[in-house]
Specification:
By secondary structure, the chain is α/β, with parallel strands linked by helices. Among the domains are: 157 residues, Response regulator (Rossmann fold, 3-Layer(aba) Sandwich), CATH 3.40.50; 186 residues, Alpha-Beta Barrel (TIM Barrel), CATH 3.20.20; 51 residues, no CATH class. The chain has 23 helices and 20 strands. The strands form 5 sheets. A 7-stranded mixed sheet has the order 2-1-3-4-5-6-7, sandwiched between helices. A 6-stranded parallel sheet has the order 8-11-12-13-14-15. The longest helix is centred in the C-terminal third of the chain and has 18 residues. The chain is globular. About 5% of the residues have low confidence.
């Protein structure tokens, strides 16, 4: 029997990948003599099979026999965790306590509708986890604890949230020793550091402001670098991720952190998130010199009109020049976009797609996108709450595993799962294949960059509509997975037929033929090096993927390496 068992949605069994927040809470309890263990989803078997995940998770929980079972909840796995809680409570008498963003936002509704959840703890839990959990273990639950949502008879009561922690340096350094029995420890992974909390901005689609009250806090440079040194000495880690929605907000603190990092007697790599209007070239240079190698930038929309409507308010004309100088310092960038806002028009989305395409021309930039989700706790979610309806076409932020199996449960409790609902517009309904389109565009940049030249910036979304028409049979194959569909699309040149009159049609067809040959070599269906593909001079002049090759006719040969990868060799023919 264990006093407290935390269940987290961490998909890796590696100890060092665990949720930093949960590790801090577990450390606080452990320092007070309370027995604590953490079980991540990564130890529950097949994460792609809902029933196996829940069954294995339930069995492992019952084996531990916890007195308190606490789940760290997110919107993408709330249904999964509630199903585990139900099965455990049917077989074992323990107290189920929820924490984390999803239960925080839906705390009162959860206790009103879900009888097998005993308590929800809202807000930052570092100051309240020990007082409340110790009272539960003593059999005398303290209902005065701030942030606690509980039942009193048939009534649900909610205490005010605890005050936000002003001095984050006062938090303990997470103690990873003794947790995750049998968990892996691999020092080569990217290790998360709790750098700070809160964002002062008020984007309508984001719930961060709801959790942290738009109060920006950052650990001191000295404390941050002390943690780098501690975890390097403990585990040999040299690659760190500073966990903060807006790490670069306080420019002077970031510069001082970089200075202290450069004084360490070992070299580190690190990454962080930022807004494009909270960085400049000098700051990027300083960060890069201290080991920054990867930067996340949320752009969200390429439409100036939508920037204002969603209260992001970036100056879009500065974004591409910023990406250029970031690349100059050998820093990779992941830019993130949201599509399908309720107010979005085809022209807005064309501007977003045009900006994405400009980014794809840069080798150091990756682009990701998500369908707009109506998350609880966001201004957007509150505005459309009463107009949302069930749909199969939902954002990936709602999760993927178990939605079909939990459909009846989710439908019975719509207040708990607003992120699985949809607001229908004609344009949103037409965007159900947009992620596959972007995946194909990223995988075959050289093809789609040429295709994009056939459209005006104001009508760029037509390229997506043409993609859907060309691959409708593949896209509508309900028996195929998304990965299978993508593989078939990448080997199929049907889209090139849309450009019969275009001078780039032969070029595009050349690329598709090369892709098919390369795929055949990867599958072991070709001899590889004996299969030669010839590019014309036009192809070489136009192709970014082969821009380093000399002009003139060239041979491209493929061979399969022992590890299954494909070796590409390009040789000029004069």
């Amino acid at each position: 029997m264990i006093d407290v068992l935390f269940i987290t949605p961490t998909t890796s069994p590696n100890v060092l990948k665990e949720s930093v927040g949960t590790m801090i809470l577990a450390t606080i309890l452990r320092e007070q003599g309370i027995g604590v263990e953490i079980l991540p989803f990564g130890r529950f078997g097949n994460l792609c099979c809902f029933e196996e995940l829940v069954a294995q998770g339930t069995a492992m929980i019952l084996e531990k026999k916890p007195r308190i079972l606490s789940f760290y909840t997110r919107c993408d796995c709330y249904h999964t965790m509630l199903e585990m809680a139900r099965r455990v409570k049917e077989q074992w008498d323990c107290k189920v306590v929820l924490g984390g963003p999803q239960s925080d936002i839906t705390a009162e509704e959860t206790l009103e509708e879900i009888p097998y959840v005993d308590y929800v703890c809202r807000g930052e839990g570092e100051s309240t986890v020990y007082p409340f959990f110790s009272s539960l273990l003593a059999g005398q639950p303290d209902h005065s604890v701030r942030g606690l949502v509980y039942r009193q008879g048939d009534k649900v009561c909610a205490n005010p949230k605890p005050e936000l922690i002003a001095d984050l340096d006062s938090l303990p350094v997470p103690d990873y020793s003794g947790f995750h029995e049998g968990g892996e420890i691999d020092p080569k992974i990217c290790f998360s550091i709790d750098a700070g909390r809160g964002c002062p901005f008020g984007c309508t689609y984001c719930s961060t402001k709801t959790f942290w009250g738009r109060k920006y806090r950052l650990k001191s440079p000295k404390r941050l670098v002390q943690e780098l040194k501690y975890f390097h000495d403990q585990f040999g880690v040299t690659y760190f991720s500073f966990q903060h929605d807006m790490f670069t907000m306080n420019r002077e603190q970031v510069i001082e952190t970089c200075r202290l990092i450069r004084e360490l007697d070992f070299r580190v790599k690190w990454n962080c998130s930022a807004r494009s209007d909270c960085i400049d070239e000098e700051l990027v240079r300083i960060m890069a010199e201290s080991g920054l190698n990867w930067l996340y930038l949320g752009i969200e929309t390429g439409s100036p009109r939508m920037q204002k409507l969603v209260n992001k308010n970036l100056k879009l004309d500065k974004v591409l020049p910023q990406l250029e100088y970031i690349g100059k310092y050998n820093v990779r960038v992941l830019t993130s976009f949201i599509y399908g806002f309720p107010q979005e028009t085809e022209e807005d989305l064309s501007q977003t797609l045009s900006l994405m395409i400009e980014m794809l021309k840069m080798k150091h930039v990756q682009v990701q996108a998500h369908l707009c989700a109506f998350l609880p706790g966001t201004a957007l979610g509150e505005e459309y709450r009463d107009r949302l309806t069930p749909s199969k076409h939902i954002s990936d932020q709602a999760g993927a595993i178990g939605l079909e199996e939990s459909a009846d449960f989710i439908a019975a409790h719509p207040r708990l799962f607003m992120q699985t609902l949809d607001f229908h517009t004609e344009l949103r309904d037409r965007l159900q294949h947009f992620i596959l389109f972007l995946s194909a565009m990223d995988a075959q940049r050289h093809i789609y960059l040429h295709l994009s030249k056939q459209y005006a910036k104001e009508t760029m979304i037509q390229m997506y509509f043409d993609f859907v028409e060309a691959y409708s049979e593949i896209l509508n194959d309900e028996s195929a997975t998304e990965i299978e569909k993508l593989r078939r699309i990448l080997a199929n040149g049907a889209l090139a037929e849309k450009y019969v009159q275009s001078p780039c049609r032969e070029l595009i067809c050349d690329f598709y033929r090369m892709e098919r040959l390369k795929a055949a070599v990867a599958r072991g269906q070709s001899k590889g090096a004996t299969d030669i593909f010839c590019f014309s001079p036009l192809t070489l002049q136009e192709s970014r993927s082969l821009e380093d090759c000399p002009l003139g006719w060239s041979m491209v040969s493929f061979s399969r390496n022992p590890d299954g990868s494909v070796q590409t060799t390009v040789r000029s023919m004069g």
